[in-house]
Specification:
Layout lengths: L8 H21 L21 H16 L2 H9 L6 E9 L7 H15 L3 E2 L3 H17 L16 E14 L2 E14 L5 E14 L6
Parallel strand pairs: 1-2, 1-3
Antiparallel strand pairs: 3-4, 4-5
Helix pairs in contact: 2-4
Length: 210
């Protein structure tokens, strides 16, 4: 009678343990590492337009806008009344996909927080508010209804564009951003202020050796 060899249980256990360790390492390597940072921290990962660019442009350009003669001239000629401003469209003419709502909101925030101008809601926001007034006219108590015809008209509209120039060779890329803003008098289409902010980024990519 031929005897069958006993299974090598110790070796199988080691192989199984090794496989489990490999699987555990693979799972760990696929898990993203997340760290929280201050929202004002500038982090450039891809070199594309980001939240820091939007915030810097808004703060710098609104500061320049409010420190130009048009504001003093308007206040002096209107018995100390602050001008009412609305932010219009910021057109993206760059080579990148840029969410212009971010810079629009940054511009609005800088204007409102300055305390030097009054500010009215945008076109889309006004429509939603008007719909609410219509609803109030039907459903709200008479002494709380907000009727039509009492909106404040803007004296000036701020609008602009984002443009880029890209220069690339080898592993280096230079991206030049130019943001232009114009403040337009609503009464006569006169441009009261024109501002420009430029940002230049150099993106160097390491070459993979064959």
């Amino acid at each position: 009678m031929r005897l069958q060899p006993k299974p090598k249980s110790g070796l199988m256990f080691l192989i199984l343990a090794a496989l489990m360790a490999v699987l555990a390492l693979a799972a760990c390597s696929s898990t993203p590492r997340v760290s929280r940072v201050d929202t004002d921290t500038t982090i450039d990962v891809s070199g594309r337009w980001n939240d820091a660019d939007s915030r810097m442009v808004a703060e710098t350009m609104i500061g320049d806008c409010l420190n130009n003669p048009w504001l003093t001239s308007y206040v002096s000629s209107h018995q100390g009344k602050r001008p009412t401003v609305i932010v219009g469209t910021v057109v993206n003419r760059s080579h990148e996909h840029i969410n212009t709502q971010t810079i629009t909101k940054d511009l609005e925030r800088s204007l409102i927080n300055s305390g030097r101008v009054d500010f009215v809601a945008s076109k889309d926001e006004r429509q939603e508010i008007r719909d609410e007034r219509k609803d109030q006219a039907v459903h709200a108590a008479d002494d709380t209804v907000k009727g039509p015809g009492k909106e404040i008209g803007a004296d000036f509209m701020l609008k602009g564009s984002i443009n880029t120039i890209v220069d690339e060779a080898g592993g280096k890329r230079v991206v030049f951003y130019q943001v232009n803003l114009e403040l337009i008098d609503m009464a006569n289409n006169r441009k009261a202020w024109i501002g420009e902010k430029e940002i230049k980024k150099v993106i160097a990519r390491s070459r993979v050796k064959p």
